[in-house]
Amino acid sequence: MAESLLLSTARVSTFDGDRLLTGASGFFFERDERIFFVTSRHVVIDAPTKHFPNRIEIELHTDAVDLTRSTAVSVWLYVDGKSAWRQGSDMGGEIDVAAIEIPREALPPNAAMFCFTPRHLPRSLDEVEVGSVLLIVGFPLGFHDVVHHLPVVRQAVVASAFGVRFQGQGFFLTDARTHRGTSGAPVVKRIPAAGGKLPWTLLGVHSARMDMSTRDLQLDESLGLNSAWYADILMTLTATPASVTTAQAQTQGQVAPPG
């Protein structure tokens, strides 16, 4: 059986009907016996690039021992013309994290997966300091073990003051080599005290590479820095609808794009 961390993360593909659009990363989060799939918001909708999928497929293992066996769970992104995912916003604007609830009956009964839970979130900012070693678990450019359907990891470090909103936004920086397809990947730090069979602390959700618009493409290398949204947003996004305030988050009322 693979390490639990590798079974907490899944490859997600976006579709417009039967037409494949993009590939990305995501992970499972369980709260109060409800299961959510978490990824970047721009994976499910991104108006600037005219990316408007109407469903996603999540690849799941169906055998904890024979990892060559897997299946794809299809999830519609719109129900009755309204978006099914949850996304949040704060004083800095929209947060690039989306969570969509997956009904248990939609999962195969033999699904081999591990879920992060609220107990995997940092209990104290003192647990993490600048330079702390992290892992980013995902599918860069779609690359992965295609036989066993497992992600790969990139080693990273915390590259900005953890707990401080970088430039007023709800994310911190990591220093790691990343690529397209890693969006939505969990950013984790190994802390055995995090508990159970998944001994990792979930610090953030990888969003995108950062760069300088003034960089000389001939003389200057890319910064190699990335944004990771603080994972505590998941406590808002996975709250029951009655306890979610519009000031903190919203279950989106995005209207399905035409066509």
From TrEMBL:
<dbReference type="Pfam" id="PF13365">
    <property type="entry name" value="Trypsin_2"/>
</dbReference>
<dbReference type="InterPro" id="IPR009003">
    <property type="entry name" value="Peptidase_S1_PA"/>
</dbReference>
<protein>
    <submittedName>
        <fullName>Trypsin-like peptidase domain-containing protein</fullName>
    </submittedName>
</protein>
